[in-house]
Amino acid sequence: MKNTKLLIGLGFLTIVGIVLVAADHIDAPGTTGNTADISDFYGFESPSNPDNTVFIIDLQTNVLPDLAYGEFDENVLTEINIDTDNDLIEDLVIQALPRGDTMYFFGPAAPDMTGRESEVLTDFPLGQVAISDADALTTTTEAGVSLFAGPRQDPFFFDFGQFNKVIGGNAPEGFLPEGEAVDTFDGANTMSLVVEIPNSMLGETTATNVLGLSVYKTWVTTNRKQ
């Protein structure tokens, strides 16, 4: 089974400061809540180094406080797909695969197979990091790549009760008064993967946006071992 989170259609990931986000907290019953469920995908210029790009993937949408933290599944390969020639086919991938209490990263490199099939790029190790619990433990490699894997508070703000009132036609007109909105996801956690990588490792791209800036098309997939 392969799940996909697309940034295509929302815009292109640009390496000069525009932030793009794909969010999704309601999925098909067979996907919701499982360890391959992609809830958010972020790509943006590093705030501390404009020559770096940061990718953040949040997995599992229902790691609520009473469930403590979720866990990464050793049967799930998470993959950042990067299109550099504007043909909507991945030219480079960055992969993450857990083993025990460590998350191993591979790439960026050309995949052995594109599309719905993926193989672990063991010949292209990118680095590894201990899977954190409450602490934001990171590893920075000699190549200048920073890595993180572990639970983080869900950044998604959503008032589910008010949403149901709107859908049911029972909501008052206009915006709620300040302070009355309730964040349904407050205190909930996701299992996050973070890669900060020098743009030089992502290769050249032929695509540009309306401002003439170099951009990448990028999307995330999770692949469950069959």
Describe the structure.
The chain is mostly beta strands and 226 residues long. It contains one helix and 13 strands, in the order βββββββββββαββ. The strands form two sheets. Strands 1, 2, 6, 7, 8, 9 and 13 form a seven-stranded antiparallel beta sheet that branches. Strands 3-4-5-12-11-10 form a six-stranded antiparallel beta sheet, with no helix packed on it. The protein is globular and about 55 Å long.
- Which residues form runs of ≥5 with pLDDT under 50? 1-22
- Helical percent range? under 10%
Q: What overall geometry do the principal axes of the alpha carbons give?
A: globular
The structural class is mainly beta
Q: Calculate the terminal CA-CA distance, rounded to whole Å.
A: 8 Å
> So how many helices?
1
What do the pLDDT scores average to?
A: 77
SSE run: EEEEEEEEEEEHEE
Number of strands: 13
Largest sheet: 7 strands, antiparallel
Q: What's the Cα radius of gyration?
A: 18 Å
List the helices and strands and how they pair.
Layout: E1 2-6, E2 13-14, E3 20-23, E4 38-45, E5 52-63, E6 76-83, E7 92-99, E8 102-109, E9 125-130, E10 139-140, E11 146-153, H1 160-167, E12 189-198, E13 215-224
Antiparallel strand pairs: 1-13, 2-13, 3-4, 4-5, 5-12, 6-7, 6-13, 7-8, 8-9, 10-11, 11-12
